[in-house]
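For the sake of clarity, the format in which proteins appear in this thesis is described at this point. The record quoted next illustrates the convention:

___
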Amino acid sequence: MHTIDLTYVERGPHEELVTYIADQEDYYADEGVHVALRDGCTWDAERLRRGATIGLGRTLVSRLVDGIPWVALNVNTDRPLFWFLARPGVTSLADLAGRRLAVHPPRTGPGRFAQIVLGQAGLDLDRDVQTVVRWPGDYGMDLRWLRDGTIDAALVGSTMAPEAVAAEYGWHMLAFVGDYFQIPTVGVAVDPTYIDPDDPAVQAVVRAHRRALQVIHNDPDTTVRHLQTFLGRHTEDEVRAHYEAFIAPYFTADGQADLAVGATAITAVAAGLGVPATFTAAEFYRTATTTP
């Protein structure tokens, strides 16, 4: 049996659902690969590049800034599952001007996504908003700070169903990032310096993940059951509503990347970082084929 380290760099279904289904449904075993899932949320790029990783947003930033030749071999979605939640009195993205916003670090994928989305609302994240930098987590502290007024808004990920949380506390869900910015964002990526994209273990992981993507589209009950593992604070009805609103419509069925979406995203992220885009979408997103 082949073995491989697979690292996640965010938490929640956005990052982990496909991997979780592949593991729980024994697709890795069926494909003859043992996967060691590792928490790389705080790892630097040099440590991440020694194994396969799920985080395509971070690897894109790393390729642009660090020159590491990451390639993406499978894509789960091009709609980043992040949302802006805000206290009463903040009813639009434009209202964040001068407000306190909890947001991911600037050199992470979600940090760049926030910059791009706020830019569309006419705000400069570095000048117009008071940022509180928060590493990926369960966002429990962000919710506490929203409740007590320490912050006015937070960029939160998929460790919760934000629409249900907003309804529970009387807050506003200002925006779903995926409505404003599309980028092939989670899947499987490797640095060919250390791992051949055609390595049998890598290709086995890709095949297992594509089987899991089929479950998401063809077996809602199984998907919701697995999704509840991540969304334990919510009722089954809330989890199913979240699946129907944000998972089923936006996850790919085949792991392929839309290169037009990818090209636009690379240009936008590079511009936000102030660096040139020195590679094409086709060079980064190599999802067209897998080896048997």
The chain has 13 helices and ten strands.
